[in-house]
Task: structure prediction
Amino acid sequence: MSSKIDELETNRKIKNIRGLYRGINDFKKGYQPISNIVKDEKSDLFTGSHNILARWSKHFSQLFIVHEISNVRQTDLHKAEPLVPDPNAFEVEMTIKKNK
Result:
């Protein structure tokens, strides 16, 4: 306990505000255990660090799988319609008048 108080005093003296506030918040909150639990695809829980790392590895490897695109011709890629239509003459004229 006295080592924590000494650490807070040291942070105050060297003006380490972040360390000071973190230490104060730790005192206010008290002990809070940290639990490392991860769910898999079937919502089963994993708790061991080895199992958690394996689950994360599997998750990210599934995210980065690239599916093949087949039977796409180059001309099909350029047929997308614009999302915003071109302005007509009246809209252009009104915008120019507003800017003056």
Notes: Residues 1-32 form one domain. Residues 49-63 form the longest helix (15 residues).
